[in-house]
Amino acid sequence: MLSFILRRLGIGLVVLVVASYLMYLLTAYSGDPLADLRASTAPNKVQLMEARSQLLNLDVPPYLRYFIWLGGVLKVFIGQFTLGVDPTNAQVTTQLGAAMTSTLQLITLSEFIGLFIGVVIGITTALRQYSGYDYSVTFMSFLFFSLPVFWLAAMLKQYVAIGFNDFLGDPQIPIPLIIALAAISAFLWQGIVGGPWRKRLVTAGVSGIATLAILWYLVSSDWFSNPSLGPVVCAGMGVGIAFIVTALSTGIKDRRALYSSLVTVAVGMALYYPLQYIYVGASVWTILVLAVVAVGVGVLVGWLFRGPDRWRSARTAAITAVGLGFIFVIDRAMGSWQVYATSSYVNNRPIATIGSSTPQLDGDFWISMLDTYSHLLLPTLCLVLVSLASYSRYSRSSTLEVMNQDYIRTARAKGLTERTVVMRHAFRNTLIPVTTLLTLDIGALIGGAVITERVFGWSGMGAMFINGLYKVDVNSVMGFFLVTGATVIVFNIIADVLYSALDPRIRVS
What we know:
The protein has about 500 residues and is mostly helical.
């Protein structure tokens, strides 16, 4: 394995050097970096041109100037790494660090959500092939996939941001709209659950009534102006997470795993009020430490339940603990919503349409988190909707192919439950094509979702690349290229290693 990784890494570095040389020449010959100064009427124009030429080594031909740039990159081995400076004499590494942080913040959330929802949709539609649910999801997936990104972004701005901000001014839902939403919910859930018509009618009735009750409560309690979950809702959601995680991880019949998850939820709810004091001076590190503690508590509870396979109970309880902790964080953030939304800088329009933060906004960790995610909402939603079709279609086709394999028929013939067949035997092999797609998407998105960043005013890698090309700033363009190229190489190697982990029949040699 180690020799394979080293060999692939060596080949990747050779490819990166050759590609970067070609990219450097193409960028350098694409325009004149002194064009703005040539058109200037400044009396010291000549001196400014000479200073920039000396600063950027423009007196050296591009095919030789590349090696000056490469020498700065290779100084990483002696701790003096540099990518040069831009025409304003600012370090490219500083700009690149800020752009990477902004882009990673954007794509990490969108990739995680898009991958999770896409795989779930793909597997469920494969298991319900040619059903109404399958056809509906297929239609919606390809609809969003075919929409131009700039148009979709504009629609999200208009109807999700501006429309919802207007709604918050007077958060009232008309009764006809409530009834219509309940009917839509009933139709969707009966299609997802499926089964005989009697089961469909029961599902539709329960989901419709539940939607009516929830919407009525949200409107009557003025929840949209001052949202919160509270201990009762958190406990209910925790129990739901415990049942769902147990059903997917071990099956509901594994009572030890189920009881360990429910006990974990009980321990978490016992700590609900003490945690509120810890949240007062919280930071990112506080949340990370609490997450580690939650995993530890879940593992301990599952381990104490003993049984023939302690690890199954420990794993299930740990996942449940993380899910409940996530609910607690959302609940605490909601407690600061009214303060954030009514601040003078937000002015009751919390869903942002441009930028990555609200200028001059000051507040604690929770206010900053709300501000960050309110700005992330629209661009993340845009990227998720666009990528959802590819993830769901790949996982659907892969699941259909895997479910027809001989070893799946053998597993069913042995009397294994359908959950065990899907989650234990089919799921890992289903992820192989998705892994390939994910590594390619990360390599592409790390370079910046150029259109999305432009529409939402997000200063990331895409904006840095476009500005570099416009100004013929070779060093900035090469900084962008170095990061994206290295990311593609590294994630392709990771994909090859993951193949052998997902499918025991694949061996890396």
